[in-house]
Amino acid sequence: MAGLGALDAARRQGGRRGRDPLRDFVRDRICTPVRLALPPTGRLTWYGQHDAYWVAHYDAWRRVGGRTYRCLDRVFDLWAVLARSCGWWWPLDGSCVVSERPVAIRTRDGRLHDAEGPAVAYADGWAVHAWEGTRVPRWVITDPTPDRIAREPNVEVRRCAIERIGWETYIEQAGLRLVATAPDPGNPGSDLRLYDLPDAVWGRPARVLLTVNGSVERDGRRRRYGLGVPRFLDDPVAAAAWTYGLSADHYSRLVRRT
Fold it and tell me: Is the pLDDT of residue 239 over 60?
């Protein structure tokens, strides 16, 4: 019984050290975002190197754990060869499409990200650009400008483009007018800054509240970000409270917001 307990402990440890990190990184951080980037009607059942997390798990048990899968061993060998030798592949009736591996995959903190070029690049020039895990058009990385940001309909893409420029630079280049500033009662040591936002950005009269994240990011930084608020709000504290559905009085009593 003691031997079985040790085997179970080794199995759990192998999952934590081998399968689980591969699954989190390859499937959850790369495979799933790429699949979701496709239109719902165009999604395919794809396989390939992104199955490495479970292929490696069972392969390790065969190599060091003495396991066999009997009639499935031959099938498993084929899965292992595919995971080692190609990128995406998907079967069709009477044929199978197989793609090359990407020549580069760049991440930061486990998320697709590259501030200078494509986060995923293939030898034929096809690429995916991403900012902190969000897929974005190429211009967001290579040539973000206030005019392009104003024309972009997707709020997440606009946010990424502004972060790529930097909020201070964007405010200066876009000519945003400072309405008011105030210490942030929910984030001691940080300020709230309220700016008029060009109508073209939101399509209606609005303002943007520039604030600092109450929680620390994975790299230890506190990210600065902007929140759209209604034009009738003139007080930065009231604007911050509005984003939480609170009154300015209630927000001012916060010890620390997240």
Answer: yes
The model's pTM is: 0.67
Q: How far apart are CA 119 and CA 89, in angstroms?
A: 20
pLDDT band of 225, cuts 50, 70, 90? confident
Query: What is d(CA 188, CA 115) in angstroms, rounded to the nearest whole number?
Result: 30
- How far is the first Cα of the chain from the last one, in angstroms, to the nearest whole number? 48
Please answer whether residues 179 and 197 qualify as being in contact, where contact means their C-beta atoms are separated by less than 8 angstroms: no
**Tokens at residue 79, please?**
């899965």
Q: Which residues contact 252 (CB under 8 A, 6 or more apart)?
A: 185, 237, 241
CA-CA-CA-CA dihedral for 41, 47, 49, 51, to nearest 10: 110
Distance CA 154, CA 192 (A): 24
**Residue located via tokens 């390790």:** 60
Q: What is the pLDDT of residues 43-53, one digit of tens each?
A: 556 677 777 87
| Residue 94 structure tokens | 């009477």
CA neighbor of 237 nearest in space, from 188, 185, 201, 189: 185
Which string of DSSP letters, residue by residue, matches 113-177? --SSS-SEE-TTS-EEEEETTEEE-HHHHH---HHHHHH---HHHHHHHHHHH-HHHHHHHHTPP
What is the mean pLDDT of the segment spanning 153-167? 89
Yes or no: say if 181 and 193 are a contact pair by the CB < 8 Å rule: yes
Burial of 112 (0-12, 13-18, 19+ CB in 10 A): buried
